[in-house]
Design a protein that fits this description.
The complex is a heterodimer of chains A (about 210) and B (about 130).
Chain A lengths: L29 H26 L9 H4 L2 H26 L3 H31 L8 H34 L3 H34 L1
Helix pairs in contact in A: 1-5, 1-6, 3-4, 3-6, 4-5, 5-6
Chain B lengths: L1 H14 L11 H24 L5 H23 L10 H30 L11
Helix pairs in contact in B: 2-3
Classes of the chains: A mainly alpha (about 210), B mainly alpha (about 130).
Chain lengths: ~210, ~130
């Protein structure tokens, strides 16, 4: 197919004609690839939800959700994550307008909300473990700590990624590569909020109702 | 000549990456999503914390329904899901994932529930020595 056109004296530069390929600017498939990663991550969480669904009632004569969960704390946690979602949205809007400073500001605020979420969750875990309701206590608590802990770990890595990108933006500005990275993190961050909807509904609210 | 024209065309596309059907949202769409999310979060929490509805099953059904609606709201307003981005492949991947998740979740719960109910050791006191 791609045979270079030869002339007798061989001076002509080889020209390649690619019929099927259209133009693919660098990184044009990154977003789709990242979306596929998120979908695979979704399967991990689905399995953890299924595990919790099966084991969520096995208290082994230990404390149940009604004894352990403080819904006011969970509501505060949910608010933190929701605020961080909207502030990340504002960061994306400022990025689209090419404003470095306000993008950085909104990213910073998002990181702080994420950190607040993490601190509240760690406080909750610490409190539960202190009361003797650690992951070793019952199958319910094992699956609870695995599911909520995995989500918390995702948020932790999201914050590390966020700080990394803020350094990147500070050094190189809102170049195309950085915009692409920020869009990937945007999907990651909003995806974590979607998972949290499942967590607070099925683990906390339905747990207390159980 | 044709190759040159193609290259020039390709370069022209680099300047604006908005022809992939991807929606980047606006202030209005983000705020709509946020306000809807706040409402859809506050009502289930209020229902459970105050016990406003006597019937527990109704409360569970309403709380789950609100969660499903909120997930859709997040997908549309925050993750900008639509059928045109990347020629519909993101939507295809999402639908495929949802099918797998539904099969895995409902299958696990169904099988394990019946396993629990049917395989429970029966303590028949009559046969005790």
């Amino acid at each position: 197919m791609n045979v270079p056109t030869q002339t007798i004296n061989g001076t002509e530069v080889p020209v390649f004609y690619v019929v099927d390929e259209h133009d693919h600017p660098a990184g044009s498939s990154t977003m789709l690839g990242f979306w596929l990663y998120l979908m695979s991550d979704c399967l991990i969480f689905a399995m953890l939800f299924a595990t919790f669904g099966v084991l969520g009632g096995s208290y082994a004569a230990g404390p149940g959700p009604k004894d352990l969960f403080d819904l006011k704390l969970v509501a505060l946690n949910t608010a933190m994550l929701l605020f961080s979602s909207i502030t990340y949205g504002f960061a994306m809007l400022e990025m689209m307008k090419g404003r470095v400073k306000s993008t950085q500001m909104w990213l910073g605020i998002t990181g702080l909300f994420g950190l607040a979420f993490l601190c509240i969750e760690l406080y909750e875990f610490h409190h539960m473990i202190h009361e003797g309701a650690g992951p070793w206590r019952s199958a319910f608590l094992s699956s609870f700590f695995t599911l909520v802990g995995t989500h918390g770990l995702h948020v932790t890595f999201g914050i590390i990624w966020l700080v990394t990108l803020m350094v990147q933006v500070a050094r190189f500005g809102l170049i195309e590569a950085n915009q692409r990275r920020l869009m990937c993190l945007s999907m990651f961050w909003h995806f974590l909020d979607v998972v949290w909807i499942g967590v607070f509904t099925f683990v906390y609210l339905l747990g207390v109702l159980r | 000549m044709s190759a040159d024209a193609h290259a020039a065309h390709g370069h022209g596309h680099d300047d604006h990456g908005h022809d992939d059907g991807r929606d980047h949202g606006s202030f209005k769409s983000y705020m709509t999503g946020f306000v809807l999310s706040v409402i859809l979060t506050a009502i289930p929490f209020w229902l459970v914390m105050t016990g406003a509805i006597e019937n527990k099953n109704w409360t569970i059904a309403i709380v789950v329904a609100f969660a499903v609606v909120q997930i859709v709201v997040h997908m549309v307003y925050f993750l900008h899901m639509n059928t045109t981005s990347d020629a519909g492949w993101t939507m295809m991947a999402l639908i495929f994932t949802i099918i797998i998740v539904v099969i895995a979740l409902s299958g696990s719960l169904w099988v394990m529930y019946h396993l629990n109910v049917n395989m429970m050791p029966v303590h028949d006191m009559r046969n005790m020595p």
